[in-house]
Design goal:
about 400 residues, alpha/beta, 5-stranded antiparallel beta sheet, 16 helices
Length: about 400
C-alpha cells in the first residue's frame, strides 16, 4: 500500500507531511492494520519567491510615501497582512505552476518522484494520493486535463497508473492501481473554470485508473478555509459512476482568537484571524488523519478498536441494563442533551472513545459510550435497584484501562 503526498502553496520544507504521516500511522495501529509506505513528493524549490516580490512592492511604496509624506502607509496600501499572507502566496504559486516551463518542471519532478516511489516498492500495487491546496489542482490537471502534449510529464504519471496505447517514452515493468484520492483545502471548483475539465472526462479516466472498483475520492473542507470548496455537485455523478465521491467538512474553530471573534459576532475579523491557519491545519489534524485512513482502508468510519468493543460488551452485561438500541451510531437531540448534562466518566487511553454517566432526578442511571468521532455507539440505563451493579462494572472497566 503506497501513500503519495502532493503539497500546496508556500511549502519550502520537504518534511511538510511528517505530522500527518504519524497521525495516520496511529490510526492504522489502532485498527490493527499494517502501516502503508509514505512518500512526500516535493516540488517547492520550483515555486516563485514571494519574498522578492514583496521587496519590490516595498520599494514602490517607499517612493509613493515620499510623494505623499503626510499620508500613512496603511492608507496607501490597505490590508497588507491579508495581501501578503495566503492570498498572495496562493496566487503567486498558482501562476508559477500555470507558466508553461515552470509547470512542466513541476510535473516532471512529481513524475520522477512517483516513479522512484513505485520502483522502491515493487510488491505494492495499491496507490493512494493525498494532495493539499495547489497540489490538488496539479493532481486534477495531471490526471484529467486534455491540454498536454504527448511528451508532457503528466502522461508519464498516467502511464504509471494505467496502460497508454501510444506511450513509448516510459518503459514501465511495474504499474499501480489508483485506489483513493484525498484532497485537503482544494480550490478545484473555481480553478476548473480556466482548466475546463469536463465531468464526463473525469468519470471516463477515473474508470481507467481504477477499473476493478470505483475510485474512492474524499474532499476535506475546513469551514474557515477560504481556499477550499465542495466539488460533488459539479462532478454531476450518475448512479453508475466510477467515482465514489464525498465532501467532508471540518467544523472546529482553528484557533482561540478566531473562536472569540466569532462568538462576539465579528465574522470579518474571525475570517482574517482564522483563514490562513485553517488552510494549513489539515497537516496537524487527527480528524483529517482519521478520514484519510477511512478512505485508504475503504471504511465508512474507524472499525471498533478492541478496547471500545470490550467496554460495550461489559456494559451490555449489566443486570437491568436497557439498551437504547435505536440510536446506535447517530446523534439525537434528547440523548445529546443528557450526554452534555452528564459527567465525563472516563476517556479511553487509546483515544478510541469515552464514557459519560448521567443520573436524572429520579436516580435513573444513564451511561453513554462515544467513539473517537463523538458518535454514540452504546447507550443504556438502569433503575435505582441495579445502579450498584452498573457502578461496579464501571469501576471494573476503569481498572481494565489502568492495566493496559
Amino acid at each position: 500500500m503506497l501513500v503519495f503526498f502532493i503539497h500546496g502553496v508556500a511549502t519550502r520544507d520537504a518534511c511538510y507531511s511528517s505530522n500527518l504521516q504519524q497521525l495516520i500511522k496511529t490510526e492504522f495501529s489502532h485498527r490493527g492494520e499494517k502501516n502503508p509506505h509514505f512518500y512526500a513528493g516535493f516540488w517547492g524549490s520550483a515555486l516563485t519567491d514571494i519574498g522578492k516580490i514583496w521587496n519590490s512592492i516595498d520599494e514602490d511604496l517607499a517612493h509613493v510615501k515620499k510623494k505623499y509624506s503626510k499620508i500613512d502607509s496603511e492608507e496607501i496600501f490597505r490590508y497588507r497582512t491579508f495581501r501578503e499572507g495566503l492570498f498572495s502566496k496562493f496566487l503567486g504559486d498558482f501562476f508559477t505552476y500555470m507558466n508553461r516551463d515552470k509547470g512542466r518542471e513541476i510535473r516532471k519532478t512529481i513524475a520522477q518522484q512517483l516513479y522512484n516511489f513505485i520502483k522502491q516498492n515493487p510488491n505494492d500495487f495499491e496507490l493512494h494520493i493525498v494532495a493539499h491546496s495547489l497540489g490538488t489542482v496539479i493532481l486534477w490537471d495531471v490526471l484529467f486535463s486534455e491540454r498536454f502534449s504527448a511528451k508532457d510529464p503528466a502522461l508519464s504519471i498516467r502511464a504509471m497508473i494505467r496502460e497508454l496505447e501510444n506511450q513509448t517514452d516510459l518503459k514501465l515493468k511495474h504499474q499501480v492501481n489508483l485506489s483513493s484520492i484525498t484532497l485537503m483545502g482544494s480550490p478545484i471548483l473555481l480553478i476548473n473554470m480556466m482548466l475546463d475539465v469536463r465531468p464526463e472526462k473525469v468519470n471516463q479516466l477515473a474508470h481507467s485508473y481504477s477499473s476493478e472498483q470505483p475510485l474512492r475520492w474524499v474532499n476535506l473542507i475546513h469551514a474557515s478555509d477560504l481556499i477550499a470548496y465542495p466539488l460533488k455537485a459539479s462532478l454531476n455523478l450518475g448512479e453508475n459512476s466510477y467515482l465514489k465521491f464525498k465532501d467532508e467538512y471540518l467544523l472546529e474553530d482553528v484557533n482561540v482568537v478566531e473562536k472569540t471573534a466569532r462568538n462576539l459576532g465579528q465574522n470579518e475579523l474571525a475570517m482574517a484571524l482564522g483563514s490562513s491557519d485553517a488552510h494549513n491545519s489539515y497537516w496537524n489534524c487527527p480528524k483529517t488523519a482519521r478520514l484519510i485512513t477511512n478512505n485508504i482502508l475503504n471504511q465508512q468510519k474507524a472499525v471498533f478498536p478492541n478496547l471500545l468493543k470490550t467496554v460495550i460488551y461489559h456494559l451490555s452485561q449489566v443486570k437491568g441494563m436497557t439498551p437504547i438500541s435505536q440510536v446506535m451510531g447517530i446523534k439525537l437531540n434528547y440523548h445529546s442533551k443528557n450526554i452534555r448534562k452528564g459527567d465525563l466518566y472516563l476517556k479511553f487511553p487509546d483515544k478510541s472513545g469515552k464514557i459519560y454517566l448521567y443520573i436524572n432526578p429520579l436516580k435513573v442511571h444513564h451511561v453513554y459510550v462515544l467513539d473517537s468521532d463523538d458518535e454514540l455507539q452504546f447507550g443504556g440505563y438502569v433503575g435505582w435497584i441495579d445502579q450498584e451493579g452498573l457502578m461496579k462494572k464501571l469501576e471494573l472497566i476503569k481498572g481494565l484501562m489502568m492495566n493496559r
